[in-house]
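> call design_seq(struct)
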């Protein structure tokens, strides 16, 4: 993980470290330099010396600092988390041998495994696993690897016995999808099949009610749709059963007719935001419980915008609404009749 760009102006001490001038560093240490204190690397970057040495993989300096008892478990700058992204396995193992905590997290929840993935240092993953990395409680790394199509890492994690259904929210995935759902969203059919072979449960929904099947529908991947449909309960795909399950939402007759029809794409000519929207089939509607609101997510596609949450049926107020997941807001719109009379006007109000 780089701390600075190629044009950054380094301080004299940072230059000595980058040049691996151990004699100069020894003089600094003899003069009282605290090797565990953060120092100015550039005008805007202050980190402990070991963090700089690990980030730049300055092996001689790393060994020298460790001989001077540099702290490998600094709460603000855990050494292993930096090394896993930037260094060779020998350095990662050295830090562990010096007492670096394999399962330590930094202040934003990064782990040594997550940074190994970030730095594409797949060769460090087996070292972490062999030294006690707690994969059984890691519900994020497999999903991260799947999202970034890091196939070598996926293979290593699966062979290590990672729980393919364990999923925990993080900053990238606050809606907490499973790895197989992310693979489906990526339109990565091979990874979907691989995860299913390893026991992935395709019926698990994320925070917004999406499951892998919904993602396949959104991507219009007919092969994946058929594959996932065969793995789901049959009643989820039978119109009569879905209508019975959705009865509690009291969907207006005109909206119900639209969702049951074969002509669910609606052109919005002249609209400055979206030129068309497409409604889900009745059997593909997502039931969402979010921020103490319960609603049906209506769209499968929308021009220029993500369809998810853009237009929903909000039964509590018997109206259409728009769920802004990013900002945590539900904006109520008009009735279904109002929308059908002038869909462009209703859609415009979402963006006002």
């Amino acid at each position: 993980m780089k701390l600075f760009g190629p044009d950054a102006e380094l301080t004299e001490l940072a230059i000595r470290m980058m040049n691996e001038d151990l004699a100069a560093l020894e003089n600094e240490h003899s003069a009282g330099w605290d090797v565990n204190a953060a120092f100015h690397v550039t005008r805007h970057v202050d980190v402990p010396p070991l963090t700089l040495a690990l980030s730049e993989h300055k092996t001689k300096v790393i060994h020298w600092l460790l001989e001077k008892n540099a702290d490998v478990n600094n709460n603000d700058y855990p050494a292993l988390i930096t090394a896993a992204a930037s260094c060779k396995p020998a350095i990662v193992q050295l830090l562990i041998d010096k007492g670096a905590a394999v399962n330590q997290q930094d202040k934003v929840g990064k782990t040594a495994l997550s940074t190994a993935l970030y730095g594409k240092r797949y060769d460090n993953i087996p070292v972490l696993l062999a030294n006690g990395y707690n994969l059984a409680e890691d519900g994020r790394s497999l999903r991260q690897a799947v999202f970034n199509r890091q196939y070598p890492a996926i293979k290593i994690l699966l062979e290590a016995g990672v729980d393919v259904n364990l999923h925990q929210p993080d900053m990238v995935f606050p809606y907490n999808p499973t790895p197989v759902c992310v693979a489906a969203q990526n339109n990565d059919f091979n990874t979907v099949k691989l995860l299913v072979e390893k026991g992935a449960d395709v019926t698990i929904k994320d925070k917004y009610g999406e499951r892998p099947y919904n993602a396949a529908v959104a991507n219009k991947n007919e092969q994946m749709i058929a594959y996932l449909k065969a793995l789901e309960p049959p009643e989820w795909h039978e119109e009569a059963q879905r209508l019975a399950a959705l009865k509690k939402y009291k969907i207006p007759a005109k909206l119900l007719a639209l969702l049951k029809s074969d002509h669910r794409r609606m052109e919005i000519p002249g609209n400055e935001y979206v030129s068309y929207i497409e409604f889900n089939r009745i059997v593909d509607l997502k039931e969402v419980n979010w921020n103490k609101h319960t609603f049906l997510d209506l769209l499968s596609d929308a021009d220029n915008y993500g369809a998810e949450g853009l237009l929903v049926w909000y039964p509590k107020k018997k109206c259409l609404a728009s769920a802004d997941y990013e900002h945590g807001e539900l904006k109520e719109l008009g009735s279904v009749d109002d929308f059908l009379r002038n869909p462009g006007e209703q859609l415009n109000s979402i963006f006002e």
